[in-house]
Amino acid sequence: MTTKILTLGNILSRPINILLKQNNVTSNLKTNFSTTSVACVNFFNKLPAEKLWKSVTSVSNAGAKKGRGRGAGRIRIRDLNRGQMIGVGRINMLWPGLSAPVIRGRELLKQQRLPDDQERLEKLIKIRDSMTKFRRLKLSPIERGWSGTKMPGRSLGPPDPIGEDAFTGFDTKVLQLRSLLIMKGNLGRTRNFQALVVTGNGQGLAGFGFGKAKEVPAALRKAKNRSGQKLMHFEIYNGHTIYHDFYTAFGKTKIFVQKKNEGYGLVCHRAIKEICQAIGIKDLRAKVEGSNNLQHIVKAFFIGLLQQRTHQQLAEEKKLHLVEYKAENEYFPKVVASPSEVRTKDQVQKNETLDFTQYVMNDKVILKKKKFPRFYETMPHYKTYLKKYEKYRNHEKIRLNLKVEYGEVKSFLTDKYPEKAETEA
Amino acid sequence: MSLPPASGTGRYFARAAKSIRLIRQGCTNRPFFHISVTHRRRLNSQPVIEQLGSYDPMPNTNNEKLVALNLERVKFWLGKGAHVTDPVAELLGLSGFFPIHPRSYMTAWRNRRTERENIAKLEAEQAKAKPPAS
Amino acid sequence: MSLIFRKLARNNPRNIITDAQILVISCRKLSIVPSVYDGEDPAPKFFSSNVQVLLKRLTRPDFTKVFRKRTSHGLTVLKTPTYKFLTNEELEEEIAKANERADRLLQMPPVVKIQQHIEDVLSKDPALVGYDTAKYIFTDITFGVANEHRFIVERDPDGYLRSCDHDVRKRLNQVYFPTLGRKLREPVMFSDLEKFNSLLDREQYEFVLDRACVQYEPDEPSYQKITSMTYQHVDNKSKYELLRSTRHFGPLVFYLTWHQTMDKLMLELLQSGAVREAVLLTALRQDIHGDVANGDVARTIVQQILPTPVQLTKPETLTEEDIQLDSKCVECIEKYIVSNSSMKSQQELALQGFREHYQQLIELSRGLKKAHGKQ
Predict the structure, then answer these.
(1) Between chains, do A356 and C101 touch, taking CB under 8 Å as contact?
(2) Residues C301, C361: one domain?
(3) Which of A327, A385, A397, C28 could in theory staple to C79 by disulfide, Cβ–Cβ 3.0 to 4.6 A?
(4) Across the 134 residues of chain B, what is the mean pLDDT of every consecutive 10-residue run?
(5) Over the stretch C108-159, which tens digit does the pLDDT of each residue have?
(6) Does A62 or A373 have the greater pLDDT score?
(7) Number of structural domains found in chain A
(8) Start and end of every S5 DRBM domain (chain A) (predicted)?
(9) Distance (Å) of CA A302 to CA A152, A195, A246
(10) Using the beta-carbon criterion (under 8 Å), do A258 and C80 form an inter-chain contact?
(11) In which order are the strands placed within the sheet that holds A205-213?
(12) Which residues on C lie below 8 Å from A322 (Cβ)?
């Protein structure tokens, strides 16, 4: 590559030499020719640099059709002026007033030739080389979003402060960034960018916002600041999960959300996961059905969260105690909410839904699909395999026990009946 | 999915003769026996009617040979007229459930005899070795 | 501790110390000596209904601790909780059921006399000498027989047919009818004294006692030694709070009372202001030894205390009945301290502190009542 550029540089500088030579020639001839030469017009000085570069880096339409320019895009435009300074050239001259001060100390500097700088060319080549390589933007795994260097899933930091109110403890995550193409009468097809972000402080406050702009950063900034102004507060049960299972929908998007115990984690769509992290929900399971339009998912999930009822509200609605049973607490009945007045058994109607899950799901029943056996389980070879390996079922445990007891796989019988090869040795 | 249980899946014919016998399980160089009731004319490799116990002929770390017996079911099958093979009868005899089997006495007597002979041989050798020294 | 001694023993060949001596020395330093119930049988007293009621009450069951979060049974994730809408009556039923479950969780490990060796020759047959060099052990695996009633006999190389001793019985029962969590070999935490002591120093009393319950039978010498050492360690450090609301508190109190070393516990009770429980403790001593000066008085007060609810925390307001009962309790304990206690001065001090605090409380609650009454 470097050699190519060198040659290119030489070619570019050559016409000047020619020009100079011609001038010399003319002076020798002592004839009054105009300084503008006609003879030295060639490919390189006929066209502007921009067009020259284009011819190198891209392929014409017709060429592309023929399959030319496979490596198009690899060669990149280089700024050959970079690293060059006016007044500094191959011949190291001192130009007072251009490349050096006119007066240094008390003496007046004179125009003079300094010893040649050997490293200058190497430095130039190095600078030009650094421009040739195509470098992909590298991100640390922490900064990275859902996929590569794409914006969705990446953090943007807190929204900008409004007046004196700063958003401390907030963090914004990009959920969607897409380009919209709009036809306009006089401009033709124009491109806009739309961003969807969610911001939250991880303690119940969160909001989402859209932003549209001609440029990506502007769209992201707009969305971020707008989401900061649309904060909603959500109750979190015991600081880790939602209050109850719920069903929510927006358009054709349906989401079934389930409450889970501590340590379960967020098992859901990645956008829902980001929203939960923004709010501060740690354990939850969600299943998206129907359309998986991302904006619909976000809206549906927020609507579902807003429609949640706390345990106290549920108890008041039912006028019954709400009792929690946990397996890890030996199913001890813990009263999580009591209404101001409790109904007696006679006041509870017969056709009332008393089952908690059914009640919070508004009598909607989730269809649980039947689990089919794994494809190989019905095959005859699987039966053979099971029979064959039945006798080895405890071997792993036994080996472990022997290692614990004797330090290797041996038993008291090994000492009693030593191997013959050993005895011979 | 597992193998059919050792406690028995064999077909049962009420009027066929039964026998209580040792059936070798385990693997090469590691014998282990099930005490099982099966038809007398059936092979040991075939499924048994019922397993009645187990016998491990290799002494464990404490120099013990472990025998397990489901005495209730043994009694039941004896009542049904099942035959008992000699090795099982020996084990039952040692356990005190049967009178001691004559073969046990014979084995014990032979073992004592060989031991006595061995001691005598040793003594004779020592006696032979001594005179040249003295 | 013993390591240092072992090193000493290695360095100075003159004063050779055996392991047994090391054990005694290292224990004496902490004044912990393993003991077993080998004299009078404690079982009739332990299982008598009076003592059981007292021990259960002294456990001071706090449901938040009884039903605390326990390790899930091999599950990587906790199960999702379930919810129910309940009326008042249903809630009471559920709480009653939970009470039963708490009783099951708080069921005390039995305190019984140490087991005797089984020496029982069933038959002698000298003609079988030389039959085999190994023992034959026969186990009756008949379905539905309890482990302790199972026939386990051995035919020795000398031709004797004997019943097996307890250790062999335990081993074979574990081979043929395994108990979950019990190991065939003794766990290192029990067999290695250093490891055991380090556990005690880390105050893992409940873990040690729970594990001992699984590994041993209550009449085994090793069980009684281990539990007695743990109880003494708890007593020395006065860390009774760690065992409260667990099933091990009853046996601990019984152990201390049986060996007449419950004065430190009494002091702790007085310092924490639990006078009623102190009276229960004197009544327990009266039931077990019958040597308390005013034992009968204590017993009558116990009858009044039992119907009142368990005091998990110090009371903030008092009713007139409470005041009456507590003053009776204080009188009873005063007599106990004078006649039976071995830590008289400290206990008297603690009681004095309680009295002062209580007097303030009485004035406060009476004043409050007056104020409310006037309104």
Answers:
(1) no
(2) yes
(3) A327
(4) 70 93 91 95 91 95 95 96 96 96 96 96 92 60
(5) 999 999 999 999 999 999 999 999 999 999 999 999 999 999 999 999 999 9
(6) A373
(7) 3
(8) 188-234
(9) 19, 17, 12
(10) yes
(11) A171-184, A188-200, A205-213, A232-233
(12) 83-86
- The region of weakest confidence among A18-22, A417-421, C142-146 is A18-22
* Tens-digit pLDDT profile for residues C195-229: 999 999 999 999 999 999 999 999 999 999 999 99
Q: pTM of the prediction?
A: 0.77
Residue C141 dihedral angles phi and psi, to the nearest 5°: -100, 30
Number of Cβ pairs closer than 8 Å across A and C?
94
Strand-pair partners of B34: B23, B54
Q: Which of A233, A255, A270 is the last residue of a domain?
A: A233
Domain B1-100 architecture: 2-Layer Sandwich (3.30)
Does residue A241 lie in a domain region?
no
Query: Distance (Å, rounded) from C-alpha C325 to C-alpha C331?
Result: 10
Nearest to C309 by CA among C31, C3, C61, C5: C61
Contact between A325 and C70 using a beta-carbon 8 Å cutoff: no
Contact B109 C130 (CB under 8 A): yes
Q: Is A342 in contact with A319 (CB distance < 8 Å)? A: yes
* SS3 of residue C206 by DSSP: helix
Q: Are B49 and B37 in contact (CB under 8 A)?
A: yes
In single-letter form, the type of residue at position C344 comes to K
Identify whether residues C14 and C101 lie together within a single domain: no
What is the structure's pLDDT at A395? Answer: 92
Residue A50 domain flag:
no
Predicted pLDDT at C194? 95
Residue with tokens 């707009």: A222
Q: Measured between CA atoms, how close is A260 to chain C, in angstroms?
A: 5
